[in-house]
């Protein structure tokens, strides 16, 4: 089977597919001359997508197992999303939050009906959603708990965003370098290590401060695709209840069906007090959301805002993504395709034990761990996969991440793993 002969999955096919338009004369140096170099880009310019496939300026076809880094929930040019965004842009795409926006209320209610949340705040991105969660936790600490100097604990190897507060919350020094002074009021602990968490809380208490919140990812994405441990989170929830500490879960990458459940916390047997979402929520249209239980909704008019947050265009897309996940039973597809992918990746680990250690993940967010002692990096493998017509994304220097659209088919999983194996065979 080749990329040229692969037909789109029934879940993603469109009767109104647009013919490819390519620009072989495109020069990346023109791009670099105009755009800040905040990304280390691969030498690839993409111009069109359909389903789980994308095409570059030369007309070459790729299987997209990056999906905008876990963002294109329904793949590319999904007919339901095309229809609603076309309709919405022709009707009303943006008004101020000074007025009621009916579709924003509909999306908020849809989230509430499919989660443990009671209230929703909309913004534009995961970083904004996490920023909102940090502000909400601090206000609750000051106004309800009477904490003068609240501390928020996050995990080492975490990733929560690029704003000054969220990059401080991110427990990776490489993202914080040269941005001092960082925001005060954060402490870091190893992920899934309950003893270390207890020790850190005790140390904070001894220094006459107090922990207001613990903010964690249900599964660490940028930190190497590391799932939360069930026992750890059960003990964590109990601890937070006993000590009146807010539990915040960052669901920016794993929410909205990515793990085979609507939310990552559903794998952990607990409910958070506050949680966040963004990437997959509107299938690639910029949106973010911060959700909380009613008891923690202490924001008042003027406390927080977002000009573009919750506008009709983004919310119409988000509501369509959510309804499509239900209508097309995509959670079942995520579970089945995830099992298929992990099984095939484990076979690659067994075939190349000198290169790979293990496979980790839930649903359609999976990581292939490269042995730490060898020189090969995740970027090396990603570059090799591009040559074979497969797009993958690193999750740190030694983990290759697989996050295809939720509509991916069994045939596309097979094709992707075959391309990966071809790439690996050329690297050893």
End-to-end distance: 24 Å
The CATH superfamily of the largest domain appears as Type I PLP-dependent aspartate aminotransferase-like (Major domain)
Helix content: 25-40%
Number of strands: 17
What order do the helices and strands follow?
A: HEEEHHHEHEHHEHEEEHEEEHHEEHEEEH
Q: Please, how many helices?
A: 13
Shape: globular
Number of domains: 2
CATH topology of the largest domain: Aspartate Aminotransferase, domain 2
CATH class descriptor of the largest domain: Alpha Beta
Structural class: alpha/beta
Instruction: Characterize the largest beta sheet: strand count, sense, and whether it forms a barrel.
Output: 7 strands, mixed
Side by side, the strands of the main sheet go 4-12-11-10-7-5-6
Please state the CA-atom Rg, rounded to the nearest Å. Answer: 22 Å
Uncertain runs are 1-8, 13-17
Shape-level CATH architecture of the largest domain: 3-Layer(aba) Sandwich
The mean pLDDT is: 94
């Amino acid at each position: 089977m080749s990329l040229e002969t692969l037909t789109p999955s029934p879940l993603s096919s469109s009767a109104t597919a647009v013919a490819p338009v390519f620009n072989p004369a495109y020069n990346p140096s023109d791009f670099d001359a105009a755009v800040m170099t905040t990304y280390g880009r691969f030498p690839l310019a993409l111009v069109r997508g359909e389903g789980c496939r994308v095409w570059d300026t030369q007309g070459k076809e790729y299987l997209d197992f990056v999906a905008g880094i876990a963002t294109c929930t329904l793949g590319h040019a999904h007919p339901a999303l095309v229809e609603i965004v076309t309709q919405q842009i022709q009707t009303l795409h943006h008004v101020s939050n000074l007025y009621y926006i009916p579709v924003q209320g509909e999306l908020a209610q849809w989230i509430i009906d499919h989660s443990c949340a009671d209230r929703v705040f909309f913004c534009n991105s995961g970083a904004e959603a996490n920023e909102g969660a940090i502000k909400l936790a601090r206000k609750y600490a000051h106004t309800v708990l009477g904490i003068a100097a609240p501390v928020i604990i996050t995990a080492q190897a975490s990733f929560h965003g690029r704003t000054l507060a969220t990059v401080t919350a991110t427990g990776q020094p490489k993202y914080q370098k040269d941005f001092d002074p960082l925001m005060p009021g954060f402490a870091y602990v190893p992920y899934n290590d309950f003893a270390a968490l207890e020790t850190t809380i005790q140390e904070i208490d001894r220094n006459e401060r107090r922990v207001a919140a613990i903010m964690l990812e249900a599964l660490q994405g940028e930190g190497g695709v590391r799932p939360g441990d069930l026992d750890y989170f059960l003990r964590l929830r109990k601890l937070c209840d006993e000590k009146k500490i807010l539990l915040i879960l960052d669901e920016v990458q794993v929410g909205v069906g990515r793990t085979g459940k609507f939310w990552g916390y559903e794998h952990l047997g607990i409910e958070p007090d506050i949680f966040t979402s963004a990437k997959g929520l509107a299938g690639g249209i910029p949106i973010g959301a911060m959700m909380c239980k009613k008891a923690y909704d202490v924001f008042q008019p003027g406390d927080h805002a977002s000009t573009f947050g919750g506008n009709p265009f983004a919310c119409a897309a988000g509501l369509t993504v959510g309804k499509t996940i239900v209508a097309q039973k995509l959670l079942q597809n995520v579970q089945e395709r995830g099992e298929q992918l992990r099984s095939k990746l484990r076979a690659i680990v067994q075939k190349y034990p000198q290169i790979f250690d293990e496979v980790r993940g839930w649903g359609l967010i999976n990581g292939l761990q490269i042995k730490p002692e060898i020189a090969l990096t995740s970027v090396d493998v990603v570059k090799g996969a591009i040559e074979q017509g497969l797009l993958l994304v690193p999750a740190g220097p030694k983990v290759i991440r697989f996050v295809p659209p939720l509509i991916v088919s069994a045939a596309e999983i097979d094709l992707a793993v075959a391309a990966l194996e071809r790439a690996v065979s050329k690297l050893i």
